[in-house]
Design goal:
About 45% of the residues lie in helices and about 20% in strands. With about 120 residues, the chain is an alpha/beta fold. Strands 2-1-3-4 form a four-stranded parallel beta sheet, sandwiched between helices.
């Protein structure tokens, strides 16, 4: 399984995220740092699927802690739009998700990614 992870560099460092994800086996993660999750756009997320990603995750900063005020809200709306687009082309919903960071960071990220992977593995079996 290949997952493209787009994440806010204001909230996570690459090494930090890599250390979280190393516990998740049998998944090839492509990590892409963004200056703000609000910079993620629809064509960029669609391109992730076109270039081989099975799923896409967008990790945003915690609620009300966005450095650009509403970047995490814009990211959420764009992810919803892409989810609808990929459903329209026949891939089905649920192959893209936003994970909004919370206080417990590492534990929360790993749990949400594992849950996301589990749900999508069930769809393919």
């Amino acid at each position: 399984m290949k997952i493209c992870v787009l994440y806010c560099s204001n909230s996570l460092e690459t090494r930090e995220l890599e250390s979280y994800l190393e516990k998740i086996k049998d998944v090839d993660f492509n990590l892409i740092s963004l200056p703000c999750s609000g910079k993620v756009d629809i064509p960029y997320m669609v391109k992730a699927f076109e270039t081989g990603a099975d799923d896409v995750l967008v990790i945003t900063c915690p609620a009300s802690q966005c450095h650009t005020l509403e970047g995490n809200l814009r990211a959420q709306k764009r992810v919803q739009a892409v989810d609808s687009l990929i459903d329209e082309v026949g891939l089905g919903k649920g192959h893209i998700k936003v994970i909004q960071l919370k206080e417990d960071g590492k534990k929360q990220i790993v749990e949400e990614i594992e849950e996301f992977i589990g749900m999508n593995m069930e769809k393919t079996t």
